[in-house]
Amino acid sequence: MKMRLSCFGYIKDIDDIARAGYDCAELHIKEIMELSEDEYKAALKKVRDSGITCEVYDNPVPLTVSITSPDFDLNYWTEYLKKGAYRTAEMGARYYVFGNGKARSLPTEGDVKGAYEKLLTFLNILCDITAEYNITVLLEPLGKSLSNFVNTIPEAVKFIEEFGRYNLKTMCDLRYLPAMNRDVEDIAAYEKYVKHIHVDNPLSNFPERFVPSLDDGYDYTPFINVLKKICYKEIISIEASVFTDFKEDIKKGIEFFRHFGIEPYRS
User: Fold this and answer.
1) 3-state SS assignment for residue 233
2) pTM for this structure?
């Protein structure tokens, strides 16, 4: 069975990800935003010449900011989002992963209602800007250690339905299903909302994330079987942060999927 396989990386990694056999690379908006105009043009050329696509981009604002803080300047960050959307759209963006765990978390005291309303305002601005470039925002359910706002796929879907923006959907990071005592069947139950998937070894201690393997102690069979059952057609991205040898380790990611009868489209 063919599925669209991707790997997290930076601009410098795109050619290695392509050579490893992946269909796509998943990039970081912060890196794109920090490039000078000349550096951006070179990165854009690198993406276009790579032979793979870069359709998913992570974290619309840096992880270090707090959207719900009184100090968060909506005017400044609106301009930041506009520039980011333009740049990433030129590079082929279709989806933005809105992880940003601490950045989107709500305060536990003080003006909690005001903070929540500010978060909603930010989300509306983000959806407005990305919609102009046909980019869909993916509200990522995260473990409670990372965020107190949306921790499960059902919570994300409930929020999305109430929020009412067509270009707001959700995704699944496999590591947060067991962390939240959720079953992989959530992917099937809410398949029309689940537009992207992250996978690593869920048993590793965050923030250490490893390329999944058959001998890492986790049984991936139910997860893979759900994807096959629903004929999953979006991108599956390996999100790893710890490598012995990046080039060799990501090749093993392709071998991992092949064990389950899943091939990248480029094979």
Assistant:
1) coil
2) 0.97
